[in-house]
């Protein structure tokens, strides 16, 4: 096969690793559900939601999508740009607060 | 037919690793993504663009929710179900999450068996993945019809801020579309694997090119991404 040598080293990892990650994702999802089930509120709720979310996302990208075994050139090209979305988030948080303030100031509390 | 033109010579020297490797890979006129085929690199870049699409949807939802003066409907109650007389908050969404995670698990195993050239197991695992995906879409259809019957519309709902409906239909609808396309993609590739296209080097109906087992991993990348997006939707839309 002419093109196998120029392409692709294959991602071959033990099945056990996938089963472990699968189990971890189940446990983390169950914990996320419990946050809502027990009705946690405030800072605890938000921080737990974000922690479980990031752990799940990290496991999926690193192991299921094999990002942990790719070269840094690909990893950074794919994972750094989404971080810039956080700048957009910061902009829009400030904008939302301004819109809310304007609405409250000019339209009262009812729409 | 002559042998395909090599655009990059076989690598003789070991590539540097870590940060030195990052600089070296990007530094000169060469193939930047070593040891990754164009198909896989392009799927990653497509997924990056899709990340921005979903990122913008979630941002729009954040702005709508932060800037409204009307209280946001409580998702815990909106998506609650009565099962056998017990009131279960958010239960349908939890089940959907488990279904999608299971499909990701079977997909990861399918990729593994694909690289072992185990045709039957690969095809079966891909079909199971597609089945989980179809189940997910079915449950989403149930959820949509339930909410529509309760009076949720893109322009209003009985419980609070009008933007709830538009955010919900836009975000889950776009995600459901991705799952649906993923199921179709899985079925096409599972059929190719089952028929042994990658052993017999049968040419594809659309591209007229020979396929390789790597396409299973590329399909897997797309499928895991769909699961990944759901992790964020679950956290921000349903739990927050």
Summary of the model, kept short:
The complex is a heterodimer of chains A (111) and B (240). By secondary structure, chain A is mainly alpha-helical. Chain A has 4 helices and no strands.
Describe the structure in your own words.
Chain B: Keywords: Cell membrane, Membrane, Transmembrane, Transmembrane helix. Chain B: InterPro entries: Cyt_c/ubiquinol_Oxase_su3, Cyt_c_oxidase-like_su3, Cyt_c_oxidase_su3-like_sf, Cyt_c_oxidase_su3_a-hlx. The complex is a heterodimer of chains A (111) and B (240). Chain A is an all-alpha fold and 111 residues long. Chain A is flat, with a radius of gyration of 21 Å. Chain A has helices at 15-37, 42-64, 72-83, 85-107. In chain A, helix 1 packs antiparallel against helix 2 (42-64). Chain A folds into two domains: 12-69; 71-111. Chain B is mainly α and 240 residues long. Chain B has one domain (36-239): Cytochrome c oxidase, subunit III, four-helix bundle (Four Helix Bundle (Hemerythrin (Met), subunit A), Up-down Bundle). Helix content of chain B is 68%, strand content 2%. In chain B, strands 1-2 form a two-stranded antiparallel sheet. In chain B, a hairpin with a 2-residue loop joins strand 1 (81-83) and strand 2 (86-88). The longest helix of chain B is centred in the last third of the chain and has 33 residues, at 163-195. Chain B is globular and about 65 Å long. The mean pLDDT of chain B is 89. Classes of the chains: A mainly alpha (111), B mainly alpha (240).
Protein topology:
The complex is a heterodimer of chains A (111) and B (240).
Chain A: H1 15-37, H2 42-64, H3 72-83, H4 85-107
Helix pairs in contact in A: 1-2
Chain B: H1 18-27, H2 38-67, H3 75-78, E1 81-83, E2 86-88, H4 91-115, H5 119-149, H6 163-195, H7 197-200, H8 214-239
Antiparallel strand pairs in B: 1-2
Helix pairs in contact in B: 2-6, 2-8, 4-5, 4-8, 5-6, 6-8
């Amino acid at each position: 096969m002419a093109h196998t040598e120029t392409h692709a080293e294959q991602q071959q990892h033990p099945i056990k690793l996938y089963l472990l990650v699968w189990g971890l994702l189940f446990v983390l999802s169950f914990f996320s559900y419990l946050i809502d089930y027990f009705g946690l509120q405030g800072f605890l709720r938000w921080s737990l939601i974000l922690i479980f979310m990031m752990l799940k996302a990290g496991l999926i990208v690193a192991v299921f999508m094999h990002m942990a075994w790719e070269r840094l050139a690909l990893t950074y090209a794919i994972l750094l740009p989404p971080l810039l979305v956080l700048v957009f988030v910061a902009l829009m948080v400030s904008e939302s607060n301004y819109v809310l303030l304007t609405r409250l100031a000019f339209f009262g509390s009812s729409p | 037919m002559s042998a395909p033109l090599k655009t990059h010579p076989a690598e003789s020297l070991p590539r540097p690793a870590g940060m030195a490797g990052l600089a070296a890979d990007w530094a000169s006129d060469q193939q930047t993504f070593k040891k990754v085929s164009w198909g896989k690199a392009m799927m990653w870049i497509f997924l990056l663009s899709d990340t921005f699409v979903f990122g913008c949807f979630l941002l729009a939802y954040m702005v709508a929710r932060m800037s409204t003066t009307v209280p946001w409907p409580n998702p815990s109650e909106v998506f609650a179900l009565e099962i056998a007389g017990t009131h279960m908050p958010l239960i349908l969404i939890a089940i959907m999450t488990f279904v999608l995670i299971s499909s990701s698990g079977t997909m990861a195993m399918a990729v593994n068996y694909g690289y072992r050239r185990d045709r039957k197991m690969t095809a079966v695992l891909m079909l199971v993945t597609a089945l989980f995906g179809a189940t997910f879409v079915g449950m989403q259809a149930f959820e949509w019809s339930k909410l529509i019957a309760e009076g949720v519309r893109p322009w209003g709902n009985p419980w609070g801020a009008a933007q709830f409906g538009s955010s919900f239909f836009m975000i889950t609808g776009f995600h459901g579309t991705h799952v649906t396309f993923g199921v179709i993609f899985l079925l096409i590739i599972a059929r190719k694997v089952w028929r042994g296209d990658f052993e017999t080097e049968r040419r594809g109906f659309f591209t007229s090119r020979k396929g390789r087992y790597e396409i299973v991993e590329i399909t897997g990348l797309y499928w895991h991404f769909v699961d990944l997006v759901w992790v964020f939707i679950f956290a921000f839309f349903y739990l927050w």
